[in-house]
Structure formats: structure tokens, C-alpha cells
Design goal:
Elements lengths: L1 H16 L1 H6 L1 H22 L5 H8 L3 H12 L2
Length: about 80
């Protein structure tokens, strides 16, 4: 369950870091960022009752790097 969230958070960071894509196709880049952000929000909504308070706080406040760090430490990845 949390592995999928971790993958989404990493994908979001990869998209943000891809400046060449952004410069080449700003609309496509923004669409991809929007899509992965919506997927993260949907995951949070679907799993809200099973997320510990600290992780939920980071996710609800879009502190995605902190959420990723928590998951990486927890999952050992």
C-alpha cells in the first residue's frame, strides 16, 4: 500500500526535476505534474483512515519530500 504512494511521490519529484521537459513542453510537463499530484491526493483520500498522523500531516500540507523521507525510512527503500 505505502509502496505505491512512495512511487507516486518519487515520480512527482522526477517530473519537477525534469527541466528539459518543462522547457521543451511546458503544457505537457504541467499536465504530468497535475496528474501525479491528483493521484497522490486520490491515494490519500482512499487510505486516510490507515495513515498515521505524522505522515497524514505531511501529505495534507503537501510536504511531499518529508512524506517521502518518512516512507523511505519506514520501508527501508
Amino acid at each position: 500500500m505505502e509502496t505505491h504512494l512512495l512511487e507516486l511521490l518519487r515520480e512527482r519529484e522526477r517530473i519537477i526535476a525534469d527541466h528539459a521537459w518543462r522547457d521543451r513542453d511546458a503544457a505537457g510537463h504541467l499536465d504530468a505534474l497535475r496528474d501525479v499530484s491528483m493521484a497522490i491526493s486520490a491515494w490519500v483520500e482512499a487510505n486516510a483512515g490507515n495513515i498515521d498522523a505524522r505522515l497524514l500531516h505531511f501529505l495534507e500540507n503537501a510536504s511531499y519530500a518529508k512524506a517521502r523521507a518518512v516512507l523511505e525510512a519506514r520501508l527501508g527503500k
